[in-house]
Amino acid sequence: MKKTIQNIAGYVLGGVMFVVLLPTIMWLASGMPDMAVHIGALRASLTGLLMVGGLTLSVWTIVYMKLRGKTQHLMTEGPYRINRNPMLTGTLVYLASFIVWLWTWQAVLVWVIFFAIMFVQVLTEEKRLRRDFGEEYESYCRRTGRFLPWTCKK
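The structure assignment produced for this chain is given below.
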């Protein structure tokens, strides 16, 4: 029961941070523009596509990890076939939707700072994965991009 409550709290905290807090910071940094301003069909469509696409990838990753459970094996299937960091990629795409919506350099700056912080975390995690999985992880890296499917190591 305690573990279930901790898991739920983690998902809620993560959701609040990435789905609400970071977009709010982008909005505040952009000078709190009126969110109801007509932005045009193309920007509105792109915003919606990025938002839904990013959230879908992140939620798929969470569900995949939950269904797979704790494992001693490297995850390379499901969303991990697309890239090595699908949950973060989904979050970055979701946050990019706010760049399109707000259309300010300040929103871009918040996104870049968030990306830089997360990139350092990814590099740290990659060191651990190399240590834990060795050649299996190296092989996975050669065939799967860090964030984008087509950026594999040669």
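Interim note for the steering committee: The chain is about 70% helix and 0% strand. The chain has a mean pLDDT of 91.
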